Amino acid sequence: MSERSTAEKRNNDGPLRRVLDGVVTGRPWFVTVLAILLALVVGAILIVVSDQEVLSKYGYFFASPGAALGSSWNDVATAYSALFKGAIFDPGNASSLTSALQPISETLTEATPLIFGGLSVGLAFRAGLFNIGGQGQLIIGAIAATYIGFTLHGVVALPAAIIAGIIGGAALGGLVGLLKARTGAHEVIVTIMLNYVSVAFLAYLINTGTFKDPTNPQPVSKPVTAGARLPHLAGDTLRLNAGILIGIAAVAFTWWLLNRSTLGFQLRTVGANPNAARTAGMNVGRVQIMAMLFSGGLMGLVGVSQVLGTANANNALTPQIDAGLGFSAITVALLGRASPIGTVVASLLFGALQAGGRAMQVSSANVSIEIVTVIQALIVLFVAAPPLIRGLFRLRGGESVDTGLAAKGWNG
Amino acid sequence: MTLELKGITKRFGSLVANDRIDLRVEEGEIHCLLGENGAGKSTLMNVLYGLHRPDEGQILVGGEPRAFDGPRDAIAAGIGMVHQHFMLIPAFTVAENVMLGDERVRAGGLLDHAKARKDVAEISARYGLRVDPDATVGDLPVGVQQRVEIVKALTREAEVLILDEPTAVLTPQEIEELFTVMRSLREAGRSIVFITHKLKEVKAIADRITVIRRGAVVGTASPDAGEAELASMMVGRNVRLQVEKAQHTGSDTDPIFSVRDLTVLGENGQVVVDDLSFDIRRGEILAVAGVQGNGQTELGEAILGLRPPAGGSIRLEGRELTGRSPRHVLRSGVGYIPEDRSLDGVVGSASVAENLVLDLYDVSPFGRRGSMDVGAVHSNAAQRVEEFDIRTSSVETAVGTLSGGNQQKVVVAREMSRPLRLLVASQPTRGVDVGAMEFIHSRIVAERDQGRPVLIISTELDEVFALADRIAVMYRGKIMAIVPPDTSREDVGLLMAGVNPGDGAAPAEEETIPEEVGDE
Amino acid sequence: MTTTLATPSAATEAPATGRSRRRWYVGGVMILIGAYGLVAFGLGTRTAHGRTSTFGLDLVGAGGVDMPDLKVPAATTAMVLSVICVALGVARMAVEPRRLWRVLTTTAFLACFIAAFLVWATANQSLNFASVLNATVLAAVPLILGALCGVLCERSGVINVAIEGQFLFGACAAAFTASLTGSLWAGLVAGCLAGALLGAILAVFANRYKVQQVVLGVVLNLLAAGLTGFLYDRILQPNSGGYNQALAFPNLRIPGLVSIPVIGPVLFNQNIIVYATMVLIAVVQFGLFHTRWGLRTRAVGEHPTAADTVGIKVLATRYRNVIIGGLISGLGGVWLTIGLNIPFNKNMAAGQGFIALAALIFGRWSPLGALSAALLFGFFEAISTSLQPLGTPVPSQFLTMAPYLATIFAVAGLVGHVRAPAADGQPYG
Fold first, then answer.
1. How far apart are CA C181 and CA C195, in angstroms?
2. Are residues C58 and C74 both part of a single domain?
3. CATH classification of B241-333+419-520 is 3.40.50.300, yes or no?
4. Cβ neighbours of residue B240 under 8 Å, at least 6 residues apart?
5. ipTM score here?
6. Domain co-membership, C141 together with C49
7. Which of B165-174, B314-323, B346-355 has the lowest mean pLDDT?
8. Which one, of B26, B39, B462, lies nearest residue B217 by Cα?
9. Does residue A123 carry a pLDDT above 90?
10. Among residues A204, B77, B137, C165, which one has the fewest Cβ atoms lying within 10 Å of its Cβ?
11. Sequence-distant (≥ 6) Cβ neighbours of residue C4 within 8 angstroms
12. Which residues of chain B are within 8 Å of residue C1 when distances are taken between CB atoms?
């Protein structure tokens, strides 16, 4: 009976009422907000307990509780305000337009590879596949883009390098899809293994004559030519580059692919119910191969933006070119619930955390940027288990949040 | 030990699966529980085994009232169960399976394989249950696996043994062996509850018979009762669905759809459709009747191309469909309503509109050059929702949230929204309400009246009689007979049970049955 | 009628045909690889001119029995070994062997091919084979422990891809606690408990909240990497003298056994964690197949409903196994720091948790299989570093790839069928 009345209310009442209703019944978006807050709280606790000075004050907590609590607060406030200043806006450093826009530029730059990666993992999710092979695919994409990038000159260099990156990633992703469709090899195992194969391959390649930069003692490739770099968008001091434009195009394309194309229709059907897809005459294996091709191609774009963008100063391959993005991408896709729009929002959030995290590390708070990874992981963990959040906050409601991934084992 | 159930009632939501059931099983008695699929036999046994808790009623074991919180309690009370789907671990040996949960151990939790083997050997010798304790269960034929299940129950000192549809998976020889075992158990004073819908078997083994229909006991009988009497108790004779339907006229035309010598293999390589042949003519409904698991599912899947046939041919209007992909078959004009809609028919998380174009997404006007026209998908959906009276709040609603009847209407609407040359409908009204059932039946008849050949596969006799122009009864992968729709219900019931009404209770396997008894 | 008769016989023949095709295929590949070895190793220029390969068999500083160096003529030895490879391939093609013989011939084939490769690589130079074996053991220890954790989790039906994270947790906790308290044993206990803690989180989210287990493992790995990295930056590194020292358990010589030629010093002059690993392998292998706990664990991983109907508590079994598994992979983390005399460093597990997962899969979810796979992978790791000074044209990275490629071949069914426990990864209840 109460169910019906809430449902009716939801239809009849105004927006405020609906927000309140969502809060009370613990609807998915509200669970997500709570998950983020909870993760930030855990982060704050970690900052406090890892600060020796503050901890020493807890030694005399009963003598002067104010000192302990005050310096705890101080610690967290310094850290999180540095995070905000590094990610959104820093009132103390807004003398010129460029410096005022600096944090936003950083956030967008950090968000760019996450967008590609999140789209890639999300696309595979929608087809019922879990692509943990981002690391490998982006490395192969980066290798292909770099090779074309330092070989070609002039106006063709950039588009050719981008396409090479997409093809590189797609080739590795497609291989996974092919093995899955033909032999039933579980994509998770194959992608994990290919990650390490790709890392080793990169380590090998970067020391060969073809790739190695002869002027650099470190294992670094030759830089790409000037023509192959993604141009800055807002002046040379801001890192914001054309990668974000490709990102927007990729979001639009993926949205169309998933929601408006016949392939996307098959992809979603295969992901939601492969039996029904087969009964409706779809070729499940072919659809899985296509999904992994596109997923890999999008991961290839992560590699492209890592090499051709402003992520590294040299525009060259390094052994750490993947920067853990293959795995961050998974958190983005999970938080964005595998939808292109959700992915953009999640990328911006995690991009901001990343940009702010760097500011936090160099600020007086001196908090390691690793805290960002912790917060990201916690957010996703909390979002993945809505009953946990509802239980912690004593919320009603039981609408489950669909991550688009049915539980399945290695055999299926 | 006697077992008594008093007034057991079990509800699932609004569905009453068991309605005040009384049952008394005496010591050393083989008590048959006879009823059609879905009559509530398995629910009752799950209540007895502690897997479901009854809403009302009492279980008495040896005169003592008992409450079971789980299988463990039931086992402790001396009840053993052989599930229809065996609860055996294929990767384990027989001895391991038998002792699991009740392990023979030496000091320190070490498994005593020798003792386990000895126990198995002892039980199998005592009751003639031949099993090799060291064989891996997954390698054994189903008949032997069933013996392992019985041994498993007996080593737990079961006084009352429940056998849930034990013969469904057995060959005639294996059934004979099972009966021998059951008789020796009876002699040893054990009670057996034997659940089945096969009349022949009931008559062969039962001491007493309780017939269940629609969740309630309709009566008890002795094994001397005639098969016709038992059949009518089981299937009921009063309910006949009425569907407005003109007399079939097209018997003079050539067959449009023909299946010849079709053989299909199951998952484990066993023959499930056995050298089957039939024809369907213009504007004719052929209904395949039969108990679930006699090869009907695989017949449907083979026609669609989901399951490649091992032999024979399937032709529609002279064109070969054998071995073609489902896509090709659908595009040849076959409408296919799958047996299990939630598994194969709809994508629960997708919208009504999308489900209505599940196999039409890439043809005009919905798809053009890789792109889909959402407007066309929606206007199509609006039209179908109207035409097929699909009760949904909008075409954007996820199909999984609709009632079973409306989900089925989505499937029916989709399959009938393109020009058809043949309609294949498996269990077209399973689990739908009466209103949706009538609607779907009338649409199927409308297809037939437009001259389409229609194949209905149904385990519901009511449905078969309401729709069929001819009835083909399947038993063990073969067609027992093809009979006209005015054949008596009892005779069809007998055919479904593998008995040919023409010659008493002789087993079907031993005779040559004319392929089309009573046709024309 | 003919169709009906023909069908069943066709059905029974089908698997046999598949098996004989596999026989031709496997034998053919073995012959090709052997022939390649013959041409590349035996007839190549590296082994030409009557060069000899020298293998040292004494582990420096271990004080076992003195063994003379093994000197072999490079070309002849490589050729003989390659010919044995070809012969094994021919034998495999000719007859369908029983399982035991299949395993033995495959092992012999691999051993001969690798030996031929080593003879070729060492031509005109010298390689201390005993130290390669020692490095193999050191590299295999965490792989074995991680894979044993995987055996416990996955045999009970919970997929654990968070072994990497458990290594990091264990390594960090062990280094920190041992440095802080000055007690290696306290470090060991803390490391194991840290692994178990991550295991407990995995178990709760998998069993209670039914989160997709692979996703869960990936997220837990990120959490572990972030958390240990954060603690390293904030606490361990600024006070490395107090909180993050290089410490290690001393080696314990086992008298008698250490005198076994060649392998004695390699296996029996190690620290307590190596011995604990050996014991754990035996305990898990024996426990899984010979105790009530093992039987129930496997039942729950194969068919939880069947286990439930005979009164086994499915979820309790899973919780227990995942947490015990966490203790074991925590020990793997302990090994990385206070087992090897190395202070904690960010991401120091460096993918070893995933190689452990590979060893688990390649070893077909059995403790002994995982042991063999871990030793093989450890051996690849060891020779990839030992070969560098020898100046072979084979890039060490290709040897690094070998375990991963082997696992891909395994799951793609190219080297026999790999099957996980039937209910692995499926939540129950």
1. 19
2. yes
3. yes
4. B462, B465, B466
5. 0.88
6. no
7. B165-174
8. B39
9. yes
10. A204
11. B263, B271, B274, B275, B311
12. 275
